């Protein structure tokens, strides 16, 4: 529980998984105070492997954690081809590579620990465990929310005098009893959605996310696998500069 004298946080992230923690790191690097709420008593420690190819390492580099991740990783620098259980060829992937010479293997619990260490020891962030979001007060005024959803992505929600709701899929909304807050990108809501997107270019909103990086979900490389093609086409058309 927060103390009566505690100040409200401009950004609250629900879920202390790798996605939520990386989002928190990127925000606090911009001097945005962040509160992270996790319903479990600690960061998930289940043994989950993770492979980071150069594109993912670039994201870790921007977040300022790549060096620490490398220390906890096993180098994944050989690609082997097999045919009928017989090894045909092996290629060393470090050849002619400079910035990100090979893939890295680092279990997700280790990544989460590194992120928590950075948040608590280097930046202005706070993590509270055993906290479950059960309600959003519509009379609370301005609010912002980052919410972890499927496919390991983050969708950003609401900056408005009247809350617009959380961007999330139906399963996430039902799990947290927040169906009435969910926003969707249906054609019927195009005018309202467009107004919302354009509002993110206003100066008061830029302390939340960069105007050109505000929504990872406009990346069609993964959206096409999970959403209706017409919805994908419409949402990309709103921000073609993101491609």
Automatic annotation (TrEMBL):
Which InterPro entries does this one have?
FAD-bd, FAD/NAD-bd_sf, RIFMO-like
According to its UniProt record, which cofactors does this protein need?
FAD
- Where the record annotates domain FAD-binding, the positions are 10-134
UniProt protein name: 3-(3-hydroxyphenyl)propionate 2-hydroxylase
Q: Give the UniProt keywords, A-Z.
A: FAD, Flavoprotein, Oxidoreductase
Query: Which PANTHER family did the record assign?
Result: BINDING MONOOXYGENASE, PUTATIVE (JCVI)-RELATED (PTHR43004:SF19), TRK SYSTEM POTASSIUM UPTAKE PROTEIN (PTHR43004)
Which organism's genome codes for this protein? Fusarium phyllophilum
Gene Ontology MF terms: FAD binding; oxidoreductase activity, acting on paired donors, with incorporation or reduction of molecular oxygen, NAD(P)H as one donor, and incorporation of one atom of oxygen
| Superkingdom as given in the UniProt entry | Eukaryota
List, alphabetically, the Pfam families matched: FAD_binding_3 (PF01494)
């Amino acid at each position: 529980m927060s103390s009566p004298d505690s100040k409200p946080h401009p950004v609250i992230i629900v879920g202390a998984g790798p996605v939520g923690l990386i989002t928190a790191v990127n925000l606090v690097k911009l001097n945005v105070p962040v509160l992270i709420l996790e319903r479990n008593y600690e960061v998930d420690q289940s043994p989950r492997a993770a492979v980071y190819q150069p594109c993912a390492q670039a994201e870790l580099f921007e977040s300022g954690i790549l060096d620490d991740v490398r220390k906890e990783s096993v180098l994944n620098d050989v690609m082997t081809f097999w045919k009928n259980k017989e090894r045909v060829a092996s290629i060393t992937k470090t050849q002619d590579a400079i910035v990100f010479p090979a893939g890295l293997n680092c279990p997700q619990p280790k990544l989460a620990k590194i992120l928590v260490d950075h948040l608590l020891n280097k930046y202005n962030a706070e993590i509270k465990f055993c906290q479950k979001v059960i309600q959003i007060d519509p009379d609370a005024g301005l609010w912002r929310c980052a919410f972890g959803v499927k496919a390991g992505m983050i969708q950003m929600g609401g900056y408005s005098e009247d809350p617009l709701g959380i961007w999330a899929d139906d399963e996430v909304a039902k799990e947290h009893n927040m169906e009435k807050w969910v926003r969707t990108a249906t054609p019927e809501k195009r005018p309202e959605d467009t107004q919302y997107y354009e509002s993110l270019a206003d100066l008061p909103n830029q302390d939340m996310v960069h105007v050109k990086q505000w929504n990872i979900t406009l990346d069609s490389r993964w959206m096409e696998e999970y959403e209706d093609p017409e919805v994908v086409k419409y949402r990309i058309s709103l921000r073609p500069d993101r491609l």
